[in-house]
Amino acid sequence: MHDLTPITALGSDEARIDTIGNLTCREVPEVALAAVSARTGKESQTRTAIKKLIKADAPDVNRFDGGTVSAFWSGPEQWMLEASFDSHEDLAARAKVILKTNATVVEQTDAWTRFDIFGDDVLDAMELLCNANTRSMLVGACTRSSIHHLGCFILCRNTNKFSVYGPRASAGSLHHAILTALQTIA
pLDDT tens, 129-147? Predict the structure, then answer.
């Protein structure tokens, strides 16, 4: 029998936290993810099922919403579901039960990595990090942008906190880009 130990995207058994000046970057490995794509003609049923899952309307373009399970818009009639891994390790399986044949659900937990960036100067750091207009993003806004040549999702959690989702296979490169932006601001 194998004795496997889970590691974070940056290769440690604990989340990496870097504080530079008044800015902090925290690796957030404890997130379960599932991609949802409505099937043709089943858009309304998919939105209804997502509402049941997240206890809020399915987010519109460039928005995220929810509670214990949340969702962010990722494309036309497409969303990424997000929840705590500890309580929703089987998020994709749960979503498939509720969505039935109305949508395609794909497990995404190990495909993406999340970094939370927060602090008083977070908007200055975000301007260096990507070309998204993060200064105009209100709480609950999300967008897709390129960071260090990587396609990433950016979520505005509050006025001084953003979450960045990037490809797990490029976690080291994304982390380096974030730290470089933070060091430039400090």
Answer: 999 999 999 999 999 999 9
Best CA proximity match to 184, nearest among 131, 129, 132, 106:
129
Q: Give the DSSP H or E segment for 72.
A: strand 69-75
95 with 128, same domain: the answer is: no
Question: Residue 5 falls within a domain, yes or no?
Answer: no
Candidates 90, 95, 4, 110; CA nearest to 51 is: 95
Euclidean distance between the first and the last CA atom of the chain, given in angstroms as a whole number: 48
Structure tokens that stand for 108 in this block = 């995404």
Specify whether 93 is located in the same domain as 119: no
* CATH number of the domain to which 94 belongs: 3.30.70.1520
Query: Nearest-5° angle of CA 177, CA 182, CA 186?
Result: 150
Q: Which two tokens stand for residue 91?
A: 């998020």
Residue 183, sorted as left (phi over 0), alpha (psi -120 to 50) or beta, turns out to be: alpha
Q: Is the pTM of this model over 0.90?
A: yes
Residue ending a domain, choose from 79, 107, 135? 107
Tokens of 115: 């970094």
**Residue-wise pLDDT tens digits, 5-43:** 889 999 999 999 999 999 999 999 999 999 999 999 999
> How far, CA to CA in Å, does 182 sit from each of 8, 33, 125, 132?
21, 27, 6, 17
